[in-house]
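Budget justification note: compute hours in this period were largely spent on complex prediction jobs such as the one shown. Inputs:
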Amino acid sequence: MLYALFPGGKRLRPILALSASEACGGQKEACLPFAAALEIVHAYSLVHDDLPAMDNDAFRRGQPSCHKKFGEAIAILAGDALLTFAFELMSRADDMATSLAVIREVSARIGSLGMVGGQTVDVLSRGGEMDQPTIEYIYTHKTGQLIAASVRVGGMAAGASPESLASLTRYGEYLGFAFQMTDDILDHEGFARTRGPEATREEARAFIAKAKDELTFLQDRAGVLAAIADRVLVREN
Ligand code: GRG
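Corresponding output:
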């Protein structure tokens, strides 16, 4: 579990949660357990995604992937335990009502109708040509749902209004789509392979602009979330 978590990657999901919370006037301490849990869920998904039955990746973040280092059985168990620990952490927050709402939010967005659903369609679609709606379903679910959840959880921890949460949701969804497009450019896969890197970057740029448009309700507190969106467009890892 520690091997999958440290040293980490970009920590995008907890950064999004903490930034959304701060932008909505929340206290860092109230959001921290949720932010950590989101990164732990992300770590579980990477450990399982690297397995031979999934993407079969030998390396992750410049080091042997978890199953290459410890064997498949331990990697599966580490992923299971990371996911379970994330829920324990979310249940430990001081405010029980927020805790419960966050647990419901995260479980809905990472389960069969969210991240795991996107991964399932991805696995079932391999070996054939994927049409545009299938690619979009995979992207908005396997990558986009956890990113949208991260932004929303930040807002929830800060007690944001339903209207603010709706804007944060759209920001997170546009950002998640753009993030997967820039991932394709870096990996020469998906959209970047079918449409070319330049057209893909232009499309990602349009999604980033839409994401930033959703931040107007934050007025002068939109800066960090806007900067994260800009950074996603030019990221190199
Ligand atoms: C339940 C057996 C079982 C498997 C589930 C949930 C799952 C497998 C896979 C999810 C698919 C997945 C890993 C999507 C994320 C794709 C993606 C863009 C990963 C990279 O994220 P970054 O760039 O990584 O934020 P770092 O290393 O920076 O944290």
